[in-house]
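Quick question, first post here. What does this chain look like in 3D?
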Amino acid sequence: MTSLPSPDPQSPTVPAARGRSLTKVFGEGDTRVVALDDVDVDFARGRFTAIMGPSGSGKSTLMHCMAGLDSVTSGHAYIGDTELSSLGDKELTTLRRDHVGFVFQSFNLLPTLTALENITLPMDIAGRRPDREWLDLVVDTVGLRPRLAHRPSELSGGQQQRVACARALASRPDIVFADEPTGNLDSRSGADVLGFLGRSVREMGQTIVMVTHDPTAAGYADHVLFLADGRIVDEMPDPTADRVLERMRAFDHETTQTAAAGETAGAR
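> Answer (accepted):
Ran it through. Tokens below.
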């Protein structure tokens, strides 16, 4: 099997992930949709980046292509120094398993396993022993040590999602992609999960890329990218929930104006 390069996680010169001229097209002819339109993007190491945009803006498509869960129509996506389209299916599976963590809106826990067994499951499947010191740090940071012997049915939704976050981090991946990780949670549980993701960046040096529609969730990030019509149209360092909400309202206003202009032009 080809050895996959893993750049020095402390090196600030190589982004954890990057995309160049990313284009993703679905369908043909009248059904053709350009979900990503020549996107260039870098995700710096040790940073928490949120991706936001109106429905259909391409934010989830961008995450899926960057994470190797979907292929691009053209362009190049990299995890570290590794260009994803250069890998075969087995190599891509190995890269995702060893270098990428995933957190989704659905918790995706196995009901017959304990919390700890769910956390270590990917490493168990790969035949790798977890780094005990790192695993203890993840467990203590997520605050679930008293619940490690419990099965998912014995945990709240917020606790289940924290197990899913711990599972994503347990193998010490180069980058973690989170797709609407608080979408199924109440506000308090969501805040717990977002706080954990933030601490994993500040205290553990992880890299998080999160797709969200929630300005409050985006306010936990270090940086926000805004997508519209498959392109990155704006960004915001050091975001707050209020500033993100204001920017999203501006998107709605711009969309309304564009639609009104189109209707006016069509009536002429």
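The chain has one domain: 17-267.
The domain at 17-267 is CATH 3.40.50.300 (Rossmann fold).
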